Amino acid sequence: MEEREAHVYAEGVRRGGTIVTVRTDDTRMGRAADVVTAHGPVNVTTREADYRASGWTGYVESEAALSRSSPDGAPGNPPGSMASRAVDDIARTNISGARPENELPRRG
Predict the structure, then answer these.
(1) Which of 17, 35, 43, 60 is a Cys-bridge partner for 12, taking CB atoms 3.0 to 4.6 Å apart?
(2) pTM of the predicted protein model
(3) What is the tens place of the pLDDT at every residue in 62-79?
(4) Three-class SS state of 43
């Protein structure tokens, strides 16, 4: 990922957005893509243009903003995001780290 694109993602998170990543094997790739697509993924190029049109000139890291959030897994902040946990629930994965039961072999 280019640094410029990473800054757009960081700005999206700063504005309350969520980044969803998927770690899966090839047999579940299509299903994971369907789940993500069904929830309206953002086009990063379009989003960057919207940010810039509203006056955003680039990402500025703020220590104060970073220090306010709890790390994943801390009380009140379960691993992953609500969206990644939803993908886990639907696709039976554990990309969020919050659904280890999905890693166990399924019994028929």
Answers:
(1) 17
(2) 0.51
(3) 544 444 555 555 555 567
(4) coil
